[in-house]
Design goal:
This protein has a single domain, classed as PRC-barrel domain (SH3 type barrels, Roll), CATH 2.30.30.240. Helices cover 8% and strands 34% of the residues. A four-stranded mixed beta sheet has the order 2-1-7-6, with no helix packed on it.
Length: 98
């Protein structure tokens, strides 16, 4: 994360409900959940789940007519994050949820 203060420590739960905006100020949504990969030694955040369906994913609601858990496509790649602090999350211009 380019503009992050290396001394700043945040809990993952502190990212929840933060607004996600581009550097130009366009609002992409609110963080409802996180995507991450677990390695043998750490947890690496890979994306921010935004958008209305993200709430259902966070709650573990199943997809309609399926026993599978709902997984939304509204994910902002963590690699696009320029800044994340208690005021919100800023991502590079041109970033869109995938």
């Amino acid at each position: 994360m380019g503009g992050a203060d290396p001394g700043l420590v945040m809990r993952l739960s502190e990212l929840l409900s933060l607004d996600v905006r581009t550097e130009s100020g366009d609002r992409l949504g609110r963080v409802h959940d996180l995507r991450a990969e677990l390695s043998s030694r750490s947890l690496v955040v890979t994306g921010l789940v935004v958008g209305g369906l993200g709430v259902l994913e966070r709650l573990g609601v199943g997809a309609p007519e399926s026993g599978a858990r709902l997984r939304t496509r509204d994910v902002v790649p963590w690699s696009s994050v320029v800044r994340a602090d208690r005021r919100g999350i800023v991502v590079r211009d041109g970033t869109t949820p995938k």
